[in-house]
DNA sequence: TCCATTATATGATCGAAATCATATTTGAAC
DNA sequence: GTTCAAATATGATTTCGATCATATAATGGA
């Protein structure tokens, strides 16, 4: 349920909590006390500038952890607000830091998790910079990114699903991919 | 010169190397032996699919490290090719893993580095998804992202410099920002 | 089984940003 | 001081993808 290495933590190192839409999970300059695993829902991380402008830093979605960097800072640097009703596992910062210091395997697995996330985000940025859309979709198919449905893929690569469906049609017409089933495609 | 915590490594844990344009820094399925700090130049990470398509995973630019995730894998999963003549510091994987296991401070600083990179990439993805361009540029200015020149900012936020200059003009016309000097702007 | 919802798919239109072009300003190099 | 390159800036045009619309097929629940 919890992603590795957090599943190795002692049970009392974390607790499940539910939040209504619009609740604050934490506030800028608070704590930081915890990092978070979002089981269901959406949480938005926002910062307020000196001029009062709201800046959205990140939108966390289901299955993601957030506020990891607060493990290494003296305060949260943004607000976290639930956009929908959300179920969140709250992981004690102190417990994680302690596990990092006393459990070499935990420490290494956590570092690996972050390193792989860096890799994945770089990849995401790269594919989102691929233009035009037809090449972006082709690249995504070539990499086997169409694992669930086309709409999810579209979101992942930063296109509307309409643009993605159109690109898929054009790729078929050009003989570059084949349709193997409804919503399933493979390279020609 | 080397970003923290790599500057704490023993001198013989790394070595500077120069590569001509088009040279391979490493190849898919090799090693992995090392991670890399790119001092000057551009390095492209590419993968080849079963169908022979080249997929660009990431373009590393000056001042960045790359292939960090290979610390935790049994082989490089892509090729690294220099796009321009490049100066690279090659850091021994074994030395880094050793430092992680024997030096708690090194381990924690490395984990923090990755966590902060995750945070930065999430932020980058978020701002790049901000539409229209004028709001993206405003958000960037509000966050103080214009630290060097407009062209660099444009690249950072995923716009052409023309679009960025135009957005800046419109923001001035709308009274939302002020021009403080050539190429310098602040919130109105 | 029927109904509601979601995914798939394509058509039409529009607008935003890329592209191409050009001028000016500035700073660095010689 | 002059030259050259790079950054700043704006204009004209085009194109790509977003948006809005609509239809069908599949899926899950009552």
From TrEMBL, chains A, B:
SUPFAM superfamilies named in the record: cAMP-binding domain-like
Domain spans labelled Cyclic nucleotide-binding: 12-117
SMART domains linked: cNMP (SM00100)
Protein name, entry field: Cyclic nucleotide-binding domain-containing protein
């Amino acid at each position: 349920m919890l992603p590795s290495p957090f599943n190795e933590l002692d049970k009392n190192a974390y607790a499940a909590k539910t939040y209504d839409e619009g609740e604050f999970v934490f506030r800028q300059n608070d704590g930081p006390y915890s990092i978070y695993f979002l089981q269901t829902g959406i949480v938005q991380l926002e910062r307020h500038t000196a001029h009062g402008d709201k800046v959205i830093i990140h939108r966390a979605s289901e299955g993601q952890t957030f506020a990891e960097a607060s493990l290494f800072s003296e305060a949260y640097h943004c607000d976290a607000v639930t956009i929908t009703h959300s179920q969140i596992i709250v992981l004690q910062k102190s417990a994680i830091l302690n596990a990092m210091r006393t459990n070499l395997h935990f420490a290494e697995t956590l570092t690996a998790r972050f390193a792989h996330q860096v890799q994945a985000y770089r990849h995401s940025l790269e594919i989102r910079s691929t233009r035009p859309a037809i090449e972006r979709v082709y690249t995504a198919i070539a990499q086997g990114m169409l694992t669930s449905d086309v709409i999810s893929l579209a979101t992942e690569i930063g296109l509307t699903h309409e643009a993605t469906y159109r690109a898929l049609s054009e790729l078929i017409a050009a003989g570059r991919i084949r349709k193997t089933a409804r919503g399933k495609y493979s390279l020609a």
